[in-house]
């Protein structure tokens, strides 16, 4: 990202990663705001891990994805 090319292709075989990057590209403030509202503790982590599977709101799902990846294994 720091190179800021005029054109680039970002791809991954994991559709969850692709969805996150698209949301973060298009709505970075909203994704980060939703992410920042989530408390960081063990109970909430497992709750969000369950919620992520059924979440349909795009920005909320991206925030959950970021949260799970940021907080798993002491990320």
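^ structure tokens above, recovered residues below v
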């Amino acid at each position: 990202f720091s190179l800021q090319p005029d054109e680039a292709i970002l791809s991954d075989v994991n559709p969850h990663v692709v969805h996150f990057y698209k949301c973060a590209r298009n709505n970075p403030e909203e994704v980060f705001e939703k992410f920042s509202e989530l408390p960081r503790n063990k109970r909430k982590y497992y709750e969000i891990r369950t919620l992520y599977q059924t979440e349909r709101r795009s920005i909320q799902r991206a925030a959950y994805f970021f949260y799970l990846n940021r907080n798993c294994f002491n990320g």
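Residues 40 and 71 are 8 Å apart (CA to CA).
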